[in-house]
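wait is this the right file?? whatever heres the structure
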């Protein structure tokens, strides 16, 4: 570090930093007012290796962060794309991370080979983002809908309020999995629209930009991979067992016929379809079409962790059909299956789009209710019970269910949360069935 750089840091440390407060897994300001996420990990490495000290400038939205930067309230911004608009007041470092943007649509939407061919399509994008700025210029034939967050943009597509969105692959994969929006898919990519995520520095602070670039130059591929892996769990199937003798024979034969390339493409497409079917089968209950226990486990663990980290309410409802054995014994297991399938459809139709319904096993169902307090969860369960009482099921006779409700507490795991919901369900059964019981009150002295 040069003498002029040391003098700069002595005069300006700590360095005021603006971030996006709600852009998980890239970055957030957590419930404790701390910078967290992939960007925070990478900035911590840069700061450590260059002897820098950052001081977070708190904001509530990305637009507030941009306004604070323009007003000179923070010397640098943590993770953003370079655009002509932003270059009016910022200079940019080299990229900390490169991440492709992909087009997200509902599953029934055809593949998008050329975004320019979509006339009048509605595209939802967070306000104030680089992608919104670029797309308005490059694709004026689209109809743009501004949203307050990444999640809202994806939700609008899921609910058919927009045709598509263009989002970071990392963010989209995490958000779709986290919210259970399995009706969404990647429908294409726009060339040249990768995220080159850099730090933005006030134009007067070129010395700071140069210092940051020296730190960024020390980041390795392993550093970046660890930062991503810490916040985004991605499983990749990298090997399929094959009979190599058969493969060699087939390749030789195909080469002689001159159709290796075409056949390879056909097989790749077929393998992709089979892999998609296998993933669906492994995570879906065949009878009801709902997620099964295996399909829920990974996302549920992340839901519990996120609720605790950011101090957000998360509740679980556990339902069990009352006297279900009587239906199987008197009208047969085929009728029992029809009742289970109908109850699954009914529950899915009654919960919110953001909530997740799962057939936990047998005649038990679980509903994960996001942003839902204990009181709200009990009310939701009571509404579901009332709908079940009045619904026309395929068997002859009434049907009721019992429910247990539990809400995430500090230190909870998936198992402890479900255990309390199960215990509450057991009390509902003992108390006469066709009722909702909430978990026992939290012991005194335990932090909320």
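ok assuming it is, sequence goes like this
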């Amino acid at each position: 570090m040069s003498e002029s750089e040391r003098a700069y840091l002595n005069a300006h440390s700590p360095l005021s930093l603006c971030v996006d407060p709600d852009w998980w897994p890239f970055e957030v300001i957590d419930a404790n007012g701390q910078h967290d996420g992939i960007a925070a990990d990478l900035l911590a490495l840069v700061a450590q290796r260059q002897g820098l000290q950052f001081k977070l400038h708190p904001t509530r939205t990305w637009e507030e962060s941009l306004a604070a930067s323009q007003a000179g309230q923070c010397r640098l911004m943590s993770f953003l794309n370079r655009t002509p608009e932003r270059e009016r007041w910022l200079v940019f470092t080299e990229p900390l991370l490169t991440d492709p943007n992909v087009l997200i649509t509902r599953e029934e939407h055809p593949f998008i080979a050329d975004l320019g061919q979509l006339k009048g399509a509605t595209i939802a994008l967070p306000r104030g983002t680089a992608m919104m700025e670029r797309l308005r210029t490059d694709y004026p034939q689209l109809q743009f809908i501004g949203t307050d967050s990444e999640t809202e943009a994806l939700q609008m597509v899921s609910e058919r309020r927009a045709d598509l969105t263009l989002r970071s692959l990392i963010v989209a994969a995490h958000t779709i999995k986290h919210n259970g929006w399995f009706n969404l898919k990647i429908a294409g990519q726009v060339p040249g629209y990768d995220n080159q995520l850099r730090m933005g520095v006030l134009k007067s602070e070129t010395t700071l930009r140069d210092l940051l670039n020296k730190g960024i130059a020390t980041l390795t591929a392993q550093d970046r991979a660890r930062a991503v892996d810490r916040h985004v769990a991605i499983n990749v199937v990298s090997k399929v067992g094959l009979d190599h003798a058969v493969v060699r024979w087939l390749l030789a034969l195909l080469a002689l016929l001159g159709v290796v390339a075409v056949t390879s493409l056909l097989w790749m497409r077929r393998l992709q379809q089979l892999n998609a079917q296998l993933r669906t089968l492994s995570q879906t209950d065949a009878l009801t079409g709902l997620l099964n226990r295996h399909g829920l486990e990974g996302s549920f663990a992340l839901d519990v962790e996120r609720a605790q980290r950011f101090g957000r309410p998360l509740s679980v409802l556990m339902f069990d059909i009352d006297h279900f054995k009587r239906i199987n014994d008197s009208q047969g297991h085929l009728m029992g299956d029809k009742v289970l399938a109908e109850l699954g459809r009914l529950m899915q139709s009654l919960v919110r789009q953001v909530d997740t319904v799962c057939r936990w096993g047998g005649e038990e169902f679980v509903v994960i209710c996001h942003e839902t307090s204990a009181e709200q969860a009990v009310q939701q369960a009571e509404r579901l019970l009332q709908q079940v009482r009045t619904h026309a099921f395929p068997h002859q006779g009434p049907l009721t269910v019992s429910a247990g409700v539990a809400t995430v507490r500090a230190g909870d795991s998936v198992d402890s949360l479900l255990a309390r919901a199960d215990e509450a369900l057991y009390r509902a059964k003992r108390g006469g069935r066709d009722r909702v019981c909430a978990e026992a009150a939290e012991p005194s002295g335990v932090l909320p």
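Residues 3-97+196-231 form a domain with the D-Maltodextrin-Binding Protein; domain 2 fold (CATH 3.40.190.10). so i think its the right one actually
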